[in-house]
Amino acid sequence: MSSVVSSQRVLSGMRPTGRLHLGHYHGVLKNWVKLQHELECFFFVADWHALTTDYENPQKIEESVWEMVIDWLAAGINPGSATLFIQSKVPEHAELHLLLSMITPLGWLERVPTYKDQQEKLKEKDLSTYGFLGYPLLQSADILIYRAGQVPVGADQVAHIEITREVARRFNHLYGREPGFEEAVEAAIRKMGKKQTKVYLDNRRKYQEKGDEAALESARALVNDQQNITLGDKERLLGDLEGGGKIILPEPQALLTPASKMPGLDGQKMSKSYGNFISMREEPDAVDEKIRRMPTDPARVRRTDPGNPQNCPVWQLHEVYSDDSIRGWVDHGCRTAGIGCLDCKKPVIDAVQAELEPIRKRAADHSRNPDLVRTIVAEGCEDAREAARDTLEEVRAAMGLSYR
Ligand code: TRP
Ligand code: SF4
To answer: 203 CA distance to ligand 1 centroid (A)?
Structure first.
């Protein structure tokens, strides 16, 4: 990763699916909440991506957008720490998508595994559209327009980050060599002063001739530490080191989110379409009811039949919510028929209730105050646009489109 500017910037998005459930909370949102305190974060609603599959039913997208944003806020995403916005309110994504489409070979898009997989899976929809083929490239534009270095995603999205890296590489290769690049690099090197220049050139040679990674690292650090050269010069030097041109669009990295351990009520992955979820705003009575009704180890027909937690979805919830002492109590009590299944479920019910109480309250506050939610997002969109415009200006210039 070679950008000076934004390698620490985080970007991620979600398609608007409406209200979120505990699977989203444990799998994605808790991670976002943590990241927002550590790095500069941009989180957005991918409403255009929703249209690639739901173009026949676009009316439901709007409500889904706001319900999802409310759940993000309820989870603890803080607009003071992270920039929250909606994709379609930042049209710069679309312009970058268009420009990138000029240099993206069709084969790259056809070979992305999700392309065929999703067409198979969503057979009832006609996904032989231009927009759907371009799904990963739109995602590339989402990422590259912010020059994000880190993209938290699940394993299913890794192929999309990979194509993003390829597109960025191709872009830099084609357009990173501005006229006079070599001269500009020479001038920038000299600005570092005699001693530093020598260190830079030594390290560059060691890397370029022998592939010495440590030398590359030292040279990068040296460049990043320079006080008296411009950001543009820093980027030229970083591009020079790796033998490419200037790096206009840095290659992002997937920040793989560990697969959520959060099971659904039936032990399968928690999912809206399986109907096995607890929503983030589930009412206390419904939480109680849903967990009480959960299936347990089928061997425990009567209270006196011993069971095995390994065959029970409730155990998976204990793995998320309980400490060692409770788990020990469950394991022993289940195997000896010392406890009943309702006894066993009680600590899980309490833990879920405790977790949801503040979330539900924050969601209710935001639902009562839609103007505030809209203001938060409108401000996020403004900030996002500003960052996006910076990139787009450089992209246009690199592609020879900055005439007036
Ligand atoms: N495709 C992603 C998903 O389905 C959503 C998404 C769109 C995204 N653009 C993105 C995620 C950019 C990360 C970065 O989950
Ligand atoms: Fe499942 Fe607990 Fe009942 Fe054992 S005691 S079967 S772990 S609910």
So the answer is: 38
Nearest-atom index, ligand 2, CA of 294: 8
Pocket test for ligand 1, best of 17, 139, 140 (most atoms within 8 A of CB): 139
Domain region containing 198: 181-241
Q: How far is the CA of 184 from the centre of ligand 1 (A)?
A: 37
Q: How many CB atoms lie within 10 A of CB 339?
A: 17
Residue 269 inside a domain? The answer is no
Pocket test for ligand 1, best of 135, 157, 162 (most atoms within 8 A of CB): 157
Same domain assignment for residues 310 and 323: yes
Total structural domains in the chain?
Answer: 3
Question: Would you say 144 and 388 are in contact if contact means Cβ atoms under 8 Å apart?
Answer: no
Q: Ligand 1: which residues within 6 Å by Cβ?
A: 11-15, 46, 49, 139, 142-143, 151, 153, 157
Residues 301 and 197 in one domain: no
Clarify whether residues 157 and 14 are in a common domain.
Answer: yes
Does residue 246 form part of some domain?
no
Residues 149 and 196 in one domain: no
Q: Output the pTM of the full model.
A: 0.86
Distance between CA atoms of residues 149 and 2, nearest Å: 9
Report how far ligand 2's centroid is from the alpha carbon of 309 (Å). 6
Q: Is residue 73 part of a domain?
A: yes
- Would you give per-residue pLDDT tens digits along the chain (404 residues)? 344 444 689 999 999 999 999 999 999 999 999 999 999 999 999 999 999 999 999 999 999 999 999 999 999 999 999 999 999 999 999 999 999 999 999 999 999 999 999 999 999 999 999 999 999 999 999 999 999 999 999 999 999 999 999 999 999 989 987 778 888 899 999 999 999 999 999 999 998 888 899 999 999 999 999 998 998 899 889 888 887 778 899 999 999 988 777 899 999 999 999 999 999 999 999 999 999 999 999 999 999 999 999 999 999 999 999 999 999 999 999 999 999 999 999 999 999 999 999 999 999 999 999 999 999 999 999 999 999 999 999 999 999 999 98
Task: Name the closest-CA residue to atom 4, ligand 2.
Answer: 334
Same domain? For 148 and 8 the reply is yes
